[in-house]
Amino acid sequence: MTMQPPDRRAAAGFSLLEVLVAFVILALVVTALFRLYGGAMNNASAADAWTRALLVAQSRLELAAAADPLRERTDSGSDDGGAITWTSTVAAWVPPGADPDLVQASQTMATRLYRISIVVEFPGAGNHTRRLSLSTVRIGARNPA
To answer: How many Å apart are CA 44 and CA 108, to the nearest integer?
Structure first.
């Protein structure tokens, strides 16, 4: 029985073409992973900016609503080193669609409704300014002393 020598091509390893195809596939996968990672980092940064703006808006809304006595006014300022600017407005409020006779009758009451609004502006992606608004309604004295 004679032994045949092993096929030279099978024992030679990978061809240059196979190695190049493997590198191209690897490069495509790595590129996709970097894009995915970059997008995730941008999303995390945007979520952080929205969270900071929301915290500023909530705290300013609570401060404006806690004022005693509650009176009509507008305030503004900035937080987070000037990156976040806010404007708070307290104004007399009448519900939309309220019966005019009821509104007229309420003029003699010692209390009234006030709408407290906060508008927060902060930097977003691509140098665009983002805006967040919150508002609430509180009852307060009609003519505070």
So the answer is: 52
> What token pair was written down for 4?
């045949």
Asked if pLDDT for residue 133 goes beyond 60, the answer is yes
pTM for the whole thing? 0.71
E strands, 25-123, in order: 73-79, 84-92, 111-123
Distances from the Cα of 16 to the Cα of 69, 81, 131, 144, angstroms: 82, 58, 56, 87
Give the Cα separation of 67 and 70 in Å (integer): 5
Q: What residue segments make up the domains of the chain, in order of their start?
A: 14-141
Q: How far is Cα 60 from Cα 30, in angstroms, rounded to an integer?
A: 45
